[in-house]
UniProtKB/TrEMBL annotation:
Pfam families: BcrAD_BadFG. Residues 8-304 form the ATPase BadF/BadG/BcrA/BcrD type domain. InterPro entries: ATPase_BadF, ATPase_NBD, Euk-type_GlcNAc_Kinase. It comes from the Bacteria. This is ATPase. Transmembrane segments: none annotated.
């Protein structure tokens, strides 16, 4: 059997699967819906992963009765604590996709995608927010990322909810005037935000806080002080996640990578990145702060290639060959290599 790596990036909003050989050649890539076991439940999440893994195998021309890969590298949102990683490793191993399996948090995949050696700090700001740091001696620094109970602040869902909260209070007099109010009224197609609240309460319209996040940044960019205050708070949080990790791992005086990723982060451009970089450099002046230019699933595949002892040439081939043509999907959509 040709050595293959099955890489899974299981986020809250989407799942990406990549099947590569030991030379770094992309055999198949598939995307599907978000299936974090923490959000949708273990069985449903595993079933989504199963369907995408089998689809990738079929696209690569594998027969249904042969193992998909030598190693499965699954990096998942919601794998936040060692107990969760252990449970997920066992559950995925039982699926029989490969002879070995490793499950870790998706921040590790982001870090590997943005570095040549997996050393440094990664902060992901997508549906949620999280960070991880890895030192040269193997020490790691992580946050539980369990929501408000573990001190979290930020992420697309949180920011969107803040936008609605501020608009409601602007209309009823408890808060400051803000252009978020007319922006959300237009978004919901109502005549007042109170009407939107009533419709949301009776589930006559869907509450999707992630959809409100871009509105928040748009309003802030037009000079709205209330919206900008939320953006400033996000900048502070990303800076804290980065600098605390750097300091806890004694990396503040080293030339180290700080990589940022996630839908919220990649969609804001220099609005957030520029100020985060300035603040991080005040603490770690030799750091290289940038947004990752490859998706975390590539990092998951690279970590898998590291595990099976692939050559540096395999990494180079994978980085240069990864194809962004695969569109986001509500169900599995993929392409085979060379298609």
């Amino acid at each position: 059997m040709t050595d293959r790596v099955l890489a899974i990036d299981g986020g809250n909003s989407k799942t990406a699967v990549l099947l590569v050989d030991s030379d770094g050649k992309v055999l198949a890539q598939v995307r599907g819906p978000g299936a974090s076991p923490q959000v949708v439940g273990l069985q449903k999440g595993l079933d989504v992963f199963e369907g995408l893994a089998r689809e990738a195998a079929a696209l690569a021309g594998l027969s249904p009765d042969e193992p998909i890969a030598r190693h499965t590298a699954a990096y998942l949102a919601g794998a936040d604590l060692p107990r969760e990683e252990e449970d997920l490793t066992q559950a995925i191993s039982e699926r029989g996709w490969s002879t070995s399996t490793f499950v870790g948090n998706d921040t590790f995949a982001l870090l590997r995608a943005g570095t040549t050696n997996g050393i440094g700090v990664a902060v992901v700001c997508g549906a949620g927010i999280n960070a991880v740091g890895v030192a040269r001696d193997g020490r790691t620094h992580r946050f539980p990322a369990l929501g408000q109970i573990s001190g979290d602040w930020g992420g697309g869902g949180h920011l969107g909810s803040e936008a609605l909260w501020l608009a409601v209070r602007a209309e009823d007099g408890r808060g400051k005037p803000t252009e978020l109010l007319p922006a959300l009224i237009e978004h919901y197609g109502v005549t007042s935000i109170a009407q939107a609240v009533e419709k949301l309460h009776f589930e006559e319209i869907e509450f999707d806080p992630h959809a409100l996040c871009p509105l928040l940044f748009d309003v802030a960019a037009r000079g709205d002080e209330v919206a900008q205050a939320v953006v400033d708070r996000l900048i502070e949080e990303i800076t804290l996640l980065s600098t605390v990790s750097l300091q806890r791992l004694d990396l503040a005086d080293e030339a180290v990578d700080v990589v940022l990723g996630g839908g919220v982060m990649t969609g804001t451009g220099e609005t957030v990145l520029g100020e985060v970089r300035r603040r991080v450099l005040e603490v770690a002046p030799l750091a290289q702060v940038r947004v990752v230019d490859l998706p975390p699933v590539v990092g998951a595949a690279l970590l898998g290639l590291d595990t099976i002892g692939a050559s540096p040439a395999a990494e180079l081939r994978l980085r240069s060959a990864y194809d962004e043509r695969v569109p986001p999907a509500s169900s599995g959509i993929g392409i085979a290599a060379g298609s």
